[in-house]
Amino acid sequence: xxxxxxxxxxxxxxxxxxxxxxxxxxxxxxxxxxxxxxxxxxxxxxxxxxxxxxxxxxxxxxxxxxxxxxxxxxxxxxxxxxxxxxxxxxxxxxxxxxxxxxxxxxxxxxxxxxxxxxxx
Length: 120
Ligand SMILES: [Fe+2]
Ligand SMILES: [Fe+2]
Prior knowledge:
Hemerythrin; metal-binding; Hemerythrin-like; single chain
């Protein structure tokens, strides 16, 4: 599945999963990626991206687990892979990395997170 990036890069209601906590966290993820793109040399922006991402994945996984969500394992694997990649990044971030992170978030929410809508 391939969803286009939104410009300006921010959350809009087409990303809504209808769990307030997760929607709020998705908004912070967009902002964290946006901040990294705006200041590619900022180690603080990168470390903030890693921490809001880790926090969100942990909350989302907790809700999936609590609901006995069927595709938990595959979903967690996608999270682990992305988190592993961004934790290994060093500043300054290049265009390819920014593009990858922007694309991953859009596609992960619409292609993967959307599958749990109504099930958590
Ligand atoms: Fe997810
Ligand atoms: Fe998510």
